[in-house]
Hints:
Blueprint (H helix, E strand, L loop, with lengths): L4 H15 L8 E8 L4 E8 L3 E4 L7 E6 H9 L4 H9 L3 E5 L1 H24 L1
Parallel strand pairs: 1-4
Antiparallel strand pairs: 1-2, 2-3, 4-5
Amino acid sequence: MSQDAPALIEQAVHAFLDEVPALKPLKLVVGIDLRGRGDTQQFRLELPEVAVRRDIAADARVRVEMRRDFFNAMVENGARVADWREAFTYGQAKASGVDQYLRLIVNVVERQEERTRTRRARH
Length: 123
């Protein structure tokens, strides 16, 4: 492992928000559970300031679960939004929480991907 988990989470969030800038002003607390060999590490992510700390995040509106080794590989290989979408589609990552927040995030990501596809087609 080249970096600690909070730094990797922060790196992943910044890369994601750079691709989907419409989510930058969203005020949200996200609980992140990274499952390892015999334990689960829990982190609290506060948006929009992207503050990550080790905490249970009892007030989280959205909770994301995934294996620690999978998360490390995704971030270190420079995962893009399409890679994260695939991870959630095939079950390597799971998101739960308030349905309105989940739907909002999915809709914003889909619209951003559509805009990106449209820009590529014009050039």
